[in-house]
Design brief:
Length: 459
């Protein structure tokens, strides 16, 4: 039942520049699969394995042999959530009017978690209110017209398409022509001074994280788990309370306004001393702030620069805002679920697998960049997207004979108590074992803006 996990690991590991044969040495364990018309558990396991292979490769470069074991069950659970609060609860992850609505000629999804995205949808619909009020208005719209109007207003929406329709859509065609990870070697940098400890292979590596929900924070959480000093930067006023306790594990979280002169100076100082930059800005957005790719490389020669967007880096939607749930609608995943289960409404994946998988691929790309910097001296610039990751899943067939994943139990949890800002919690046990390098986090989850914009250990 793990054959597809191996196949997908080979595909992903090759896409980030690894030798496909290394995937044969991964040990997959665990029985059961998430309920879906797609092989989500194999997809999750392969993404986790790809990130783990990058860690093992780095340890070998340090000079010690190691092995990789991935638990398919725990990988599936981590793709949903990892934190289990004790005596408190995380906020609801969705805005009250976010969701799928029947339009005049099909289904459309509105993504309104950010205040300005909700305002854009409400301005187009001409209503403010509850979900029922929004539904009555949406029902009179053609789905394509409403999608276009919301996007034009600066909001986020996606009409439901089939996989066949997406593959013929101009953006689907553009995404299909892109690599899973577009990786380019850049200028040489100064010799790193990382301690290179096999037990904590990323200790001393400084990661500047400019990403938001959800893929980028998953990537930086993984990097922190192996010792990286992760500093997340958000603009003033931004929050994502439904996922902050989930994804800020191991990080310091600060705020900077890149339109403010003083904050720009602080950011430039941080960038000059960063080893890895993760960002989820759409193409051209950082350029408009004065921090385009050439400027970033000039400020920090040898920088490992890994970025992502929703709908790909080319084509007519190359600058479109998007999120996992929207890409699932656009690319045909939700329609395939509805059709496969003979349902009357869109059936998305049981977890936000595009986000999580892309996050682990970003982590693998960054760690391979770290390895390249150590062994060859030069930097890396890489781009990934949710839509391109989705195409990997769309093309796979699920093993119908594999049983459904058994319900989670306390046996799946780590015994360690995490003293988060909101109260004590446990985490689901690590889904990966890299022999000799235990995944662990030095810092508990904390709120956005709770730290000063400086590296750990800085005065």
């Amino acid at each position: 039942m793990t054959a597809l996990s191996y196949e997908l690991t080979k595909l992903a590991w090759s896409a980030v520049g690894g030798n496909a044969s290394a995937a044969d040495d991964v040990v997959f364990k665990g029985r059961g699969a998430l309920a879906s018309v797609f092989p989500v558990t194999d997809f999750a396991s392969a993404a986790v394995a790809t990130a783990a292979l990058s860690v093992a490769e780095l340890i070998r470069a340090i000079g010690r042999a190691t092995s990789v074991t991935v638990d398919r069950r725990l990988s599936s659970i981590w793709f949903s959530s990892s934190i289990r609060p004790i005596g408190w609860s995380t906020p609801a992850p969705w805005d009250p009017i976010a969701g799928d609505y029947p339009a005049r000629d099909g289904w459309i999804r509105l993504h309104t978690n950010a205040r300005h995205h909700r305002a854009a949808a409400e301005s187009v619909l001409g209503v403010r209110g509850d979900k029922e009020t929004v539904a009555r208005v949406v029902a009179h719209w053609a789905k394509a017209d409403l999608e276009a109007a919301v996007v034009e207003a600066g909001g986020c929406a996606a009409e439901m398409r089939s996989t066949a329709e997406w593959k013929l859509h101009p953006q689907g065609l553009s995404v299909a022509a892109e690599p899973l990870a577009r990786i380019v070697e850049t200028e040489w940098g100064a010799t790193p001074t990382w301690p290179l400890l096999a037990a904590r292979p990323l200790q001393g590596v400084r990661v500047l994280d400019l990403t938001r929900v959800l893929a980028g924070p998953v990537a930086s959480r993984f990097l922190a788990g192996y010792g990286a000093d992760v500093l997340r930067i958000d603009p003033p006023g931004w929050d994502e309370p439904g996922v902050v306790p989930e994804v800020t594990l191991g990080k310091r979280c600060a705020r900077l306004d890149l339109r403010d002169a003083s904050d720009r100076t602080t950011f430039e100082t941080l960038l000059r001393t960063a080893d890895v930059l993760l960002h989820g800005y759409r193409p051209g957005a950082l350029d408009r702030l004065g921090f385009g790719a050439w400027t970033r490389r000039k400020l920090r020669p040898g920088l490992i620069d890994v970025c992502l967007d929703a709908y790909g880096w080319s084509g007519p939607w190359g600058t479109r805002r998007g999120f996992d749930s929207l890409v699932q609608m656009s690319a045909g995943i939700a329609e395939a679920g509805m059709r496969g289960l003979r349902a009357e409404k869109p059936i998305p994946l049981p977890v936000q697998a595009l986000d999580h998988a892309t996050g682990y691929l970003m982590a693998a790309t960054a760690i391979r960049g770290i390895n390249r910097r150590l062994t060859q001296g030069h930097g890396t610039q890489a781009c990934l997207s949710l839509a391109r990751t989705a195409m990997v899943l769309i093309d796979q067939q699920r093993d119908e004979t594999e049983p459904q994943l058994a319900p989670e139990s306390k046996a799946d949890w780590s015994p360690t108590i995490e003293a988060t800002e909101w109260g004590e919690a446990r985490r689901v046990a690590s889904p990966v074992e890299v022999d000799g390098a235990v995944m662990s986090w030095a810092l508990p989850a904390s709120s956005l803006g709770s730290a000063d914009p400086r590296w750990g250990g800085s005065p």
